[in-house]
Amino acid sequence: MGEDLGKIVVDTAVSLGQPTVSELVDSLVKQKGLKFKDATKAVYVEYKKGNLDLSGANPPSNLASYFVNLDNAWFWAVSALVAVTVLVVFTVNASALLYLRYALGGVFVLFLPGFMLISALYPRGGELDSLERIALSIGLSLAIVPLIGLVLNYTPWGIRLEPIMVSMALFAEVMAVAVVVRRFKYFQLGQR
Fold first, then answer.
1. pLDDT of the residue at 186
2. Residue-level pLDDT at 56
């Protein structure tokens, strides 16, 4: 029965073209009469055996759909980190949460600006190994933050907490968007 089930899964996937996992499982449940649990397990087994290629199912065709792709969950995590850090810095004054403010602020100032710039300059993952990326992120952060402060010094807002936090958050978000745009361009080149 296991080999027959595998053949049914592969034949169904071939007949559907390039289905997503949910489309394949739904088709197995509705058309072949399998239980949902059995269908998902069979799809997983055939995928692990290498009989199914589910990676190319519905690739993002434009930048907007690429932004909400699961591969870019890091972008939303960085955006959430920036938002939480700004919120914590401006609202937390209690001594119990002060260490959270220090930790988030340290990452926000000493790591994030450099990491976003390095990721924008080298968007493909294989150009730098992890240790190089971390070291360059810290070093560049130590160079970027004073430059942002220097620019703020010549603005009407000056060097205060609010303008520094806003400009650092804007820098991190602009660099994150630049990373997504550059990775989308490489993704498009790989699809050709």
1. 82
2. 55
